[in-house]
Structure formats: structure tokens, C-alpha cells
Amino acid sequence: MSTPRQRPLGRYLLLLVLLAILLAVGDYFLILRDWACVAGRGVWEERPTFTPSSPSPPPTRARPTSTATPSPTQPLPTPTDTPRALSGAGEATPTSTCTPTTTPTPSPPPPTPTRRPTPSPETTKPRPQPPSVAEAANSTKALVREIWDLRSLARMHHTTTRLFSSVYFPLGPDVAPYSFWDKFESPSFFTTVYYGYPLEGGGFGHYTVRQSPYFGDQEYLIVPNIRETQGPGAITFMWFAYKSSDDPNDPLYGNPGLMEWGRMGDVGNIRIYIDGQLAINAPITEFIGGQTIPQIETLLWHHAKNGGNGCLFPIAYNRTIEVATTGCPRWFTIGITRFLKPQQPFETLVTHSIGPDEVEEIGQLDKLWTDPLIYPELIGSQQETRALSIPPGGSAEIRVPGSGTITALRFEVPSGVEDQLGLQMYWDQETIPSVSLPFRALFGRPEETSPYQSFATGIVPGPGFLPLQKKNLFYSNFPMPFQNGARIVITNSGLETARLNAILYLDRQTTDTRFTVCFSPWVTLDPDTPEYRPLSIKGRGRLVGLMLHSAQFDYDAIRVDPPKGKWRFCFVEANITIRIDDNPPLYFSSWEDITGAGSYWNSHWNWEGIKERANTAFGGIAFIEPERQDLSIYRHFLPLEAPEFTRSLSLILQHGANTTPEGRGRIAISGTFFLYLQ
């Protein structure tokens, strides 16, 4: 028999159980409300589509073509797969889903699903477009806005890109090296024939040391005044790294300055000459640290222990540009954008100080890079939410009629459901998709969900639709313009119904480009594989971003430097080459280089480490597993720096590690590439 003290406890337990049941029932009805039409939210149910399109009307305009062939069903690897299983035949030339479409045959639009009235892109109030370089060429404010208003990514800027970097060419200027380290070991290396930059029409220029025209002391000239950089133009990207501070044998080990900056101070002053006049002369640590021009601090980045340092503030010039340092640099990359259309004179750091207008635009940028999810609010896009229920083996479609731009895209997905989803996007009644890849590959690593945030893409974990359930928010801020309708198809290859929410942000403005994603499935590089060509595309457009993924690196197979245990991610030293039309190639000296980072990858890794040290808004690590040496990086090009091509673009990734097969281990590589094709 229960005692008097036990009876109230039993009642309380019963009440708690009843309360939990009521809460669960309440959540259930909330979920039903989410899947149904809800007045005031503009939410409607999208019915699954199972039947193929009927015969089609006349073809639309031609699109640029890719040399890759479609393979949307290529299996993805799991951590337990062998490298051979990842690649199939184990060849170095992968199959990409960037599909050729010369004369697409559009399918007729299906019946419009029943929905609550919401304004279409054709009837929404026009939103202000960002002031383009062509419209406000002399405005520093316009140049800064070009960075944060991502709608300008989808517009051709009529530019060419040059890159000056510390790539080492031991086999000659026309041979891409398989070097382990690209760096200036000493000042004597700076002027050797193994370092330099390609020239238009062939040939090779070499770095020089000169006497400063202003100060008479010695300067290391890293951006020379040559014909290929003559203005108008702008420096759009600067990255520097030096020796890190992790060596306890360094006599200055433990010194606060060394622990913060490594040996970066040995680079001395950075000097930037604009149109023949000295614009900046300051210690490089002060310039990148934000003391020289405090107003542009948001556009500077610095990782402690010299993990990587740089500047994204557009430094415009009208005729000539030169960059020099008073000490010998070790690693660097500087991107130069030239504007090919006639321009009014630019405001420069020589003629124009950073004022309230520029500070206001940089403030908008700071908001976006602090919280990328507020981007649609900054540009005033219209929100539409659609609840999707996709049966096993089925698909669901989201259709947007008329013309406009999907300025941002969000998917709320219960944790684990993304494993079974595929994604295709069709623009302007095309029958072959411009985007076709595993769902997760648009946002991060193809087969694993790992949280990270960049200004263009990311994955954010959160609470799920049910008690104790988790969900992930997959987001993209890439603008997706369309002239004659947009169609997004999500497929479900799983055995259970997939339920998710899709949130679209729409803008009436549009451009004549198509958002295109080329996905390269996993390919195994054997030790004797020379190089990996995941992207080769013909036509006219812009490369605006990329992700590179590695898996199952065979570190133990390496029989030469680096010594075992020193640098387990040595494959990231692989040089990356981007070839654009017949222009000089863009040489990035490593995966670290292209992301704007540096030797901080030697640090201890976990999710907190990535947030603290690794990532910037435009480049960094989306996934890392140190024990397996599995890695995913991202690099999103800013609108002013995105490489443009008029005939063709290709990307070549070297095997990495060392110059001989004995210095390379087997590795599996995959890639996702973001473009706009005109």
C-alpha cells in the first residue's frame, strides 16, 4: 500500500505524463499546419510530380556547352569505401554533371497547383538594383556595394583577371609543378627563374628587387607595372602568409607579437603605388591589422599564429598599379581585375578618402558577413514558403512563373532526411537542368552534413519539427535569375516520405545569365596520376565559387618528405590552375592559398577550431576529419574578382604533396563549381 507521501508523487507523475502527451499533440497539429495552407504566411502545399513532361514547343536560345557529360546518378562514397570503389575505373578524368545544352527543348508548363494568392515576381514592387561599375565607375561606394550585393554576381562585368602569386616552377614556366612547398625560402629565391608570372601571348616575367622611387631603399616588387595590368582596374584580393609561430625552438617563442603574427613582421612595410603615386606605406601587420585604414577593417582578415592574412577592399587605379614590400615575402597571392569597358576615372586612395558613404556600405557588408541569413532582408526580397512532402521514389517541384530572380534559397530539412535527396534546377523552360547534383552537394560536402557558414552557402543546425528532433537549415545566397519561369525539382531516393520546408526569396529584377552548377563525382588519383581536371566548360560566363572535397588519403604510402606525422594534409599543397580563354593562367599555390588561409591548418581541429581560426565569409573549411584526412573547402569569389571568360574556362588540380609518385599517396577528389553562363 502506498503511503500518504507517495500518493501525491504518483499524481504528479501522472500529470507530467498527461502534459507531455498534450505538448506532443500540440506539436503534431503545428506540423499539420506547416504542411497545409496557412493564411497570412503565403504557404501552400506542393504536390509530388511523377509523370514526365509531354511533347515540347519550339526550342529556346542556345546555351554554352561543357565538355563534361551528365552523371546525376553517380554513387557517392562512404568513409568505409576503398579508393577504387569511389572512382569506379580509378581514372583521373571525372564525369561532371555540368551538362551540354545547345538547343534545349522546353516542356509545356504543368497545371498550376492550388495555392493562396501571393504576388508573383512580375507584380512585386521593383527593388533597387546595386549601382554597377558601369553606372557609377568613379564611385568607391559602388565598388564596395559590388562586394555585398550578391545580385551583381549574376551580371557580366566585362573584366579580365590577373594573379601574382608565390607559385614555384621548378620544371619551367610552362609546366605546372608538383611541388610540396611554394615559398621564398630566402631573398635569393625571389629573383630566380623558378618564380614569376605568365605574360599575355606566352613568355614569363620574373619578380625583381628594386630601389624604391620614393625612399631609395630596397623593395621586393610583387605586382609590377606591366601592360597586362594597366588600368582602369582594381586590386580585389590580397593574401599573405609567412612562417608560423608553432616552433618552440624559435628564440622568440612565447613572445606575444610572434604568437599573434608569426614571422609576418619580417615582410616589413607594404607599399602600394597608384597611378605613379605612393598611396600606402605601412608595416604589413598594421595594414592588415586595421590600424592603417580603420574604416576598412571588415574587409581585412587575420588568423592568429599567422594562419593567413589579407585584404578584400577594392583598391582602384586608373592607369598603373604596383605593390612592393620592404622585406622578402614568403607566400602571397594578389588578384588584379581590369575593366575592359570605357570608364570614367575611378576614385582612388590617392584622390579620395574613405568617407561616410563607404562606411555605410561596409557596415552593410559587416552585417551580412556576421549573419549571412539576413541577406534577403538587406535587399528587400519577397519571401515565399512552401511545404514539401515527397514519397519514396518520387519528386516534388517548385515552380515560379514569369521573370525575376531567386535571390536566396533555404531548405529546412529534418536531420538525416537530406541523405536521400537529389536536386535539379531548370531555368527558362529548359529540359536539361542547369543544376543537377546530390542535394547536399549544393551546400557542402556531398555525403556528410557538417555545419559551417559563408556569405554564399552554409548549413546551420537547429531544433526539428518534433520534440527531440533535429533539423538543418541549408542555405544559398547565390542569385538565380530566370526570364521565362524557374523550376526546382527535389527527388527522394529513400524508403520513407521526406518532409521539408522550402523558403524562396524573390526579386523582380533579372539578368540574362543562368546559374549553373557543375558537380564532379568522386575520382581516385593514384600516385602516378599527373593532374585532375574536374571542370572544363565552353561558352561565356563567370566562375563565382567552388568546393573541393577529399577522401581516404593514403598518407602511409608516402615514402619521401614530408616525414610521417609532420603534415598529414600535405595533399592540400597541390597547385590549382584556372585557365581562361587565351589569357595567362591564374596560379594558386595550394588549397590553403585559394581559400585565403595559411599554415593554421596545422592546428588542432574541431568545430570550434574551424569557427575560431579557419573560416572567413568567402573561403575556408566546410568539413574536416583529421584521422581520415578527409577535407572539404570552399572559395566564393566576390563579384568584382570572379573570373570571366568569353570562350572557355578550365580548372586543373595537381595531385599535390611532392614532385614524384613516391611523394604522393592515393586520394579521392570531388568538386562542386558555381558559374553563371550567358
Please tell me about this protein's structure:
Helices cover 14% and strands 32% of the residues. The radius of gyration is 26 Å and the shape is globular. The model is unreliable at 1-7, 23-95, 99-135 and 602-613 (pLDDT under 50).
* Overall form: globular
The number of helical elements comes to 10
Largest sheet: 8 strands, mixed
Q: Strand share of the residues?
A: 25-35%
Distance between the termini: 82 Å
Poorly predicted ranges:
1-7, 23-95, 99-135, 602-613
Helix amount: 10-25%
Mean pLDDT: 78
Task: Supply Rg.
Answer: 26 Å
Strand runs, count:
35
Briefly note the structural class of the backbone. alpha+beta
Question: How would you summarize this macromolecular structure in one to three sentences?
Answer:
The chain is an alpha+beta fold. The protein is 14% helix and 32% strand. Helix 3 runs parallel beside helix 7 (356-370).
Per-chain topology:
Elements: H1 6-35, E1 43-46, H2 83-87, H3 140-148, E2 159-165, H4 187-190, E3 197-198, E4 204-205, E5 208-211, E6 218-223, E7 233-241, H5 256-261, E8 269-274, E9 277-283, H6 284-289, E10 300-303, E11 308-311, E12 315-317, E13 321-325, E14 331-339, H7 356-370, H8 375-379, E15 382-390, E16 395-400, E17 404-414, E18 421-427, E19 435-438, E20 452-453, E21 457-463, E22 470-476, E23 480-482, E24 486-492, E25 498-507, E26 514-525, E27 531-538, E28 541-551, E29 576-580, E30 586-588, H9 591-595, H10 607-614, E31 619-625, E32 630-636, E33 644-645, E34 648-654, E35 667-677
Parallel strand pairs: 1-15
Antiparallel strand pairs: 2-14, 3-4, 5-6, 6-13, 7-11, 7-12, 7-14, 8-9, 8-13, 10-11, 15-25, 16-24, 17-22, 17-23, 17-25, 18-19, 18-24, 20-21, 21-22, 26-35, 27-34, 28-32, 28-33, 28-35, 29-30, 29-34, 31-32
Helix pairs in contact: 3-7
